[in-house]
Amino acid sequence: MYMIDMIEDCFFVEASLGGKLDPSEIQVMAKDLAATMYGKDINKFTIMLDYSRAKAMDADTRTQLCWVKDALLELGIRKIINIARDDTDLVDGTTDRIQYVLEGREEFLLEPDRSKLPSVSTSATAMAL
Q1: Domain that holds residue 48
Q2: Which residues are registered as beta bridge partners of 106?
Q3: Domain count, the chain
Q4: Half-sphere exposure of residue 17, counting CA atoms within 13 Å on the CB side?
Q5: How many CB atoms lie within 10 A of CB 34?
Q6: Domain CATH code at residue 122
Q7: What is the DSSP string of 1-26?
Q8: Alpha carbon distance, N-terminus to C-terminus of the chain
Q9: Is 86 left (phi over 0), alpha (psi -120 to 50) or beta?
Q10: Tens-digit pLDDT profile for residues 2-39
């Protein structure tokens, strides 16, 4: 299950993922995310991928999620903020993506710092159960 929200005037997108995820669901989310971002100046946007409520992902699902993040970065997204499930995911994610973390293009947190993020109060643009 996932939900995508966009605050266009703040150049911010939140993709919240929960429950049991598999590679095919990540692919569908990526297509919905692409549709949401279509025609936008992607290099101005920050995206928050919140998978703190998702069950542990298997290797194939994690690989698919990394592919999506790589594609976003190649397209020029300003920054990806990952909200990890636990300390293990935080350390693994940071280690796996260390180059992007060092460049400041990707960040891993256990909780979003809501004081630094825009309020997501708009209706969902894409949602799947």
Answers
A1: 2-128
A2: 80
A3: 1
A4: 29
A5: 14
A6: 3.30.750.24
A7: -EEEEEEGGGTEEEEEEEES--HHHH
A8: 4
A9: beta
A10: 999 999 999 999 999 999 999 999 999 999 999 999 99
